[in-house]
């Protein structure tokens, strides 16, 4: 199992006000021993931080987790992803997410429709565009949402010596999970996921969808941003626990994620979290996340113990584990967790 980090985020403890700070984060990630870094489209462009990572950390894999697909069109995204794949010498993964209707229509002023069918067609259009560029063939993609039928020599990039980038799709429900298995190279699992939900719901859904698509689980990448509570002393540990409780409460208030809580018999918790979120009572929401809920949704422990628990819970089912810490984590603690995961055998 590979272990990755985040750069340039606003909810994961890596927030920075400038690209200069992100450049420093890249250096910290490389020194920590991460295998790769992800950039999330929240309050800044997701690609520029990865450009810095690709240039300054030639060992790291780089990827978007996620870039908002429906805020763009397949041609614009195919172009920037192709450039990123070339610049990184084949170390780039394009991770896509749909976002939700209000953001697509009101923040990005773009059209919204059934997200799963649109995402399926979006990724197919990407591959059609890349194939046209790679093989110097006519572009003729015609779909229900996207049509790409013009590619003149002036606008055709040269053949990418590293081939098209890997594409992964962020999925929560069964429909998008099926789309990811059908048309993508892997899936970005949502951070509001437990080990039990992964084993009992997500992985069986993925395997079933892959079988229908004639693909194998071994050739499909699962990437998971796992919440972790750790620290080098008691004060840091308590600050970490509070930050993660807040994050769990925020996710738990979202009706779309109720199924995870339902599996554990905590459906009433979701109802109450949602009610409190409507009146902006975030303090009460955080207090509702007791130790049992915290330890179910997050790995909790001192750095060495956290590394061992990450490997135990996820080593047999997750290909890439991203250390998700919505708080500041000192470099020594981060390095201890990363090296601990690398040095422990995974369990099925």
Task: Walk me through this protein's architecture.
The protein has helices spanning 19-32, 48-56, 74-87, 101-107, 115-135, 174-183, 195-212, 234-252, 258-263, 267-278, 282-287, 291-297, 303-314, 331-342; strands at residues 2-7, 36-39, 61-64, 67-68, 92-97, 141-142, 147-148, 166-171, 186-189, 221-229, 298-300, 320-324. β4, α3 (74-87) and β5 (92-97) form a beta-alpha-beta unit. α3 packs across α5 and α13 (303-314) packs parallel to α14. The chain is globular, with a radius of gyration of 20 Å. It contains 14 helices and twelve strands. The model has no long low-confidence stretch (mean pLDDT 93). It has two domains: 2-231 and 302-343, Luciferase-like domain (TIM Barrel, Alpha-Beta Barrel); 232-300, no CATH class.
């Amino acid at each position: 199992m590979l272990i990755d980090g985040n750069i340039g985020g606003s909810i994961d403890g890596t927030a920075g006000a400038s690209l200069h700070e992100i450049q420093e984060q890249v250096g910290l990630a490389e020194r920590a021993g991460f295998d790769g870094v992800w950039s999330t489209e929240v309050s800044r462009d997701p690609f520029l931080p990865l450009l810095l990572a690709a240039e300054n950390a030639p060992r790291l894999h780089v990827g978007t987790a996620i870039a908002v697909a429906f805020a763009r069109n397949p041609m614009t995204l195919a172009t920037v992803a192709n450039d990123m794949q070339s610049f990184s010498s084949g170390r780039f993964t394009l991770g896509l997410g749909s976002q939700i209707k209000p953001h697509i229509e009101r923040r990005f002023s773009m059209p919204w429709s059934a997200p799963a069918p649109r995402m399926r067609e979006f990724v197919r259009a990407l591959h059609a565009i890349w194939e046209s560029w790679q093989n110097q063939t006519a572009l003729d993609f015609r779909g229900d949402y996207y049509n790409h039928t013009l590619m003149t020599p002036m606008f055709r990039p040269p053949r990418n010596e590293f081939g098209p980038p890997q594409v992964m799709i962020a999925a929560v429900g069964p429909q998008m999970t099926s789309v990811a298995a059908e048309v993508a190279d892997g899936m970005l699992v949502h951070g509001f996921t437990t080990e039990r939900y992964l084993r009992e719901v997500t992985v069986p859904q993925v395997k079933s969808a892959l079988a229908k698509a004639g693909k194998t689980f071994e050739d499909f990448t699962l990437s998971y941003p796992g919440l972790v509570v750790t620290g080098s002393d008691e004060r840091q540990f308590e600050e970490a626990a509070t930050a993660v409780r807040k994050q769990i409460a925020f996710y738990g208030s979202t009706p779309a994620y109720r199924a995870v809580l339902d599996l554990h018999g905590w459906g009433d918790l979701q109802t109450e979290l949602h009610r409190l979120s409507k009146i902006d009572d975030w303090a009460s929401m955080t207090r509702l996340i007791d130790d049992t809920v915290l330890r179910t949704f997050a790995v909790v422990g001192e750095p060495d113990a956290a590394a061992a628990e990450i490997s135990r819970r996820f080593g047999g089912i997750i290909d890439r584990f991203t250390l998700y810490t919505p708080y500041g984590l000192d470099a020594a603690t981060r390095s201890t967790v990363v090296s601990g995961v690398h040095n422990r055998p995974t369990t099925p």
